[in-house]
Amino acid sequence: MDVDLSATPRAITKTTPLPIADIDAGSCDSHGVNVYKGHHFYHYESATTLAMSKIAPMPQDITHAMMACQE
């Protein structure tokens, strides 16, 4: 999705369908993009890879360590 940040209110100028629906959260860092859905996450190498994907990668479990939780 492209957003025109100069418009007031902000306006979406382009939408891109994602390979995953009902996303709960997302995060990115120097290692790529993580998309969170339920108790799983999906890792993409970049935002471009996420936008261009036709299918989702294999889901991975969210761990306590990922969320900085101590058991």
Automatic annotation (TrEMBL):
It comes from the Bacteria. It comes from Oceanospirillum sediminis. This is Uncharacterized protein. SUPFAM superfamilies: Hemopexin-like domain.
